[in-house]
Amino acid sequence: MLRSRRGAVDVGTITAVWPEADTLKILDQRQLPGAVEYLTCRSAAEVVAAIADLAVRGAPAIGVAGLYGLWVEAVRVSARPDARDRVLDAAGRLRHARPTAVNLAAAIDFGLEKLGTATGPEAVSRLRKAADTLAAEERTRTHRQAQWGASLVSKTASLLTHCNTGSLAAVGMGTALGMIRALYAAGRLSQVWVDETRPLLQGARLTAWELAQDGIPARLVTDSMAGSLMAQGLVDAVVVGADRIAANGDTANKIGTYSLAVLAHYHQVPFYVVAPVTTIDPKTPDGHRIPIEERHPDEVRRVAGQLVAPAQFPVYNPAFDVTPAHLISAIVTDAGILRPPYAGAIAALFSED
Length: 353
Ligand code: MRU
Fold this sequence. Notes:
The chain is α/β, with parallel strands linked by helices. It contains twelve helices and 17 strands. It has two domains: about 1-140, translation initiation factor eif-2b, domain 1 (Four Helix Bundle (Hemerythrin (Met), subunit A)); about 145-350, Rossmann fold (3-Layer(aba) Sandwich). 5-S-methyl-1-O-phosphono-5-thio-D-ribulose binds near residues 60, 170, 202, 241 and 242.
């Protein structure tokens, strides 16, 4: 995998993944905010590694990256007699690179559906077209849901957010961060509280970086400060993204989201989930059935590579938690705002397809 470097990223032009010649370019989020570096992937194996190691992360972004990964594999093996078998094998590996965000598996399924029985150059062209379509649709979705989300907040508000849900995670404006951007543009945002988001600090490293690029007023807090902020009346709403929304509205998102929802409920602060319809999984009935990824213990034992606990100390490191539907005030999608009870609203959304 090639690595290249650029000095700065212009405001509003952050793109997490994009095709270039016969390769997939990935903005390496592991290096942010210290360095802006790009990976050049030429095989599905390289894309699987980039997704698993969080060079690209965030539910919609890994879906788009995964499908471009299938396309680069099709390009790579196109001259071989077993090209189709290799592409199908790669689809399986890409699908399972991360288990919680349904966008990844759904993107691969979408690509395979468009691939059909095609082989050779036709297979390459169909997969590229499918990936381009998905990327463009996800981008458009972020704009729609940002507008719906902004409509929920009528007065100038202070919002608290968790993890990174911006252009890095979702292409386009982002999910929860897209709503924040839309509120700022409408002049109804006083400031954003940014949870640092342990263990991997997506809030501190990535959300703070995106907000700074945009010049949006924001302050970084540790995850443990949220309760105190709410008790002081400093949070008007909590807005988060999602990795998978079950058919009943239970929502898996970055670890720590559930604690925020409980705190918001206690303090009577609205708790909004912002996600495209591609993050809703009507086949998973409730949150108990959502697979939760467990990651390497060193992510907890270390901060920025530095050991902060005894080297072999036992660790529990689930990357996500599940917020029960009854703690969610509204789910903002590109198709509109869903209100509880979610089971009916979600069923209606998918019956229209
Ligand atoms: O482990 P990550 O960084 O991929 O987790 C990302 C999140 O939990 C986001 O909140 C989620 O993907 C929604 S962002 C569009």
